[in-house]
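Reproducibility note. Readers wishing to regenerate the assembly model reported in the main text can use the exact inputs given here. Chain order matters: entities are listed in the order in which they were concatenated for prediction.
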Amino acid sequence: MSYVEAVLNGLMVGGLYGLFGLGLALAFGIMRIVNIAHGEFVVLAAYLGVTLLAVTPLPLPVVIVVVAIAAFALGWTLQATMLNRVLGPNPVPAMVITMGLSIVLRNVLVKLYGANIQSIDIGPLQTMGLAFGGLSIGLLPMLIFAIAVVLFVGVNLLLTRTTIGRAFRAAADDYEILETLGFNRRRIYNAALGLAVALSAVAGLLLAMRSSFSPFSGVERLLIAFEVVIIGGLGSLRGCFLGGLFLGVVQVVGLKLYPNSGPLFGHLAFFVVLLLRQSNLGSFLAWGRK
Amino acid sequence: MTLLALENVDVFYGDLQAIFGVNLHIDQGEAVALIGANGAGKSTLLRAMIGLTAARHGTVRLDGHDITRERCDLVARRGVAIVPEGRRLFASLTVEENLLMGAARARPGPWTLDAVFALFPAMREFRHHNAAELSGGQQQMVAVGRALLTNPRLLLCDELSLGLAPKVVGEIYACFAGIRATGVSIILVEQDIVRARSASNRLYCLLKGRVTLEGASDAVSLDAISQAYFGERRQ
Ligand SMILES: Nc1ncnc2c1ncn2[C@@H]1O[C@H](COP(=O)(O)OP(=O)(O)O)[C@@H](O)[C@H]1O
Ligand SMILES: [Mg+2]
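Running the prediction on these inputs yields the following structure tokens for the assembly.
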């Protein structure tokens, strides 16, 4: 794998990282909820995908849609039954709830599937590739990247062209006024968390086709999401996308340099970005922020 | 016919009581002014009317329905709209998007985007601007338009003139005739007593959370108003 390939691969996995960040950013931007269980939802989606592929004859695209719908329902239900009870200026109760939930989910997954590392086998697509200009790029990463781009564009259209999308943004600005216009704030929140979890779930399922996972992968996914959001800037779709790409590239290129480095270089890059921001030298890194 | 009636309403913020046993009513098509000094409880009373802060004791009735503890969005759907103090536009939305939020859950009625643009023709020019980029007067027009687009039966206006130049205030009040012609009732909160009087049929004066004066706007004397407003006769 050449460095050009590494960069391209990094961009492609970065699209998924962007989606992880987007799910977290939506929940924080709209409800001011820091969803600690975000990573566990991502992993849960991967397990749900594995199970559906194993026990049902459903083809992969349908499985993705089913997982997305299930995740939307899960996000909606979590907001409606628990998080809407702790709305208010204090963000801690929601953090405690989602942290508790993350522990429960992790242990349920261990109970159901064991602690072993898993991966999703999707057949020949996994190894197909395209070669051009001396580079060989996997078909699967490209497909996954395309899905990520489509989802970002779709969310952008949703936020700017539809009533529910505008209501998300308006709720983030001033939910009281939104209520005085006849909107049920709780419903808006339910839909927002549904969307956030669904996006992350799709990303989690897609990532599971490229890299293995275990019930304990959630923390790592959550960390990526946090880093994407902080690098990209809160409340900006473009920021999330670019932040994801940046992390993806750094990580994959880092892995090429030092194959045993794992996610180390991503975390280092995040740390450097934070330092640069702090010392105000990093305005060139603030791309994509509103 | 009475549209909205408050009976012995007490409103609290936590342990702090802001409104004490207020009785107030407004008829269909009427314009009622609510005047009082800063902190008298005018905004709080409006919040109780639209369900943002429910009255702890007493009753709020709309068309005879008890809406005292009804959720704000449901009260809004029954036809109550508010132009809030400080305008409170959605800052990350454009002008047009702000207006569309008003229209999205609207009742049937005369107010459409075009009707609002006809009322404030200048708004067409800055419809695609971000709400945060507008001047105070422009923001106020958008806030009024947004509330009108819900097609309310009762429009609560909280200090329209706050922080605006007198000329701009005049322009906004000039539109009131057109708004009232559609049959909407208006409760007008103002600190400017002269303007409040001339724009209303009746007025209530609020002092420290209590009604200290009520009457037909052209019948109450400025002297009586200033006494009710400040709580004592000024020398
Ligand atoms: N959110 C709040 N929490 C606690 N007290 C409040 C709040 N809003 C207003 N108050 C108090 O309630 C009283 C009435 O305030 P308000 O209704 O805003 O008066 P006005 O609109 O007439 O200036 C004041 O004493 C004010 O300090
Ligand atoms: Mg006020």
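We highlight two features of this model. The CA atoms of residues 155 and 165 of chain A lie 8 Å apart. Strands of chain A lie at 129-132, 135-138.
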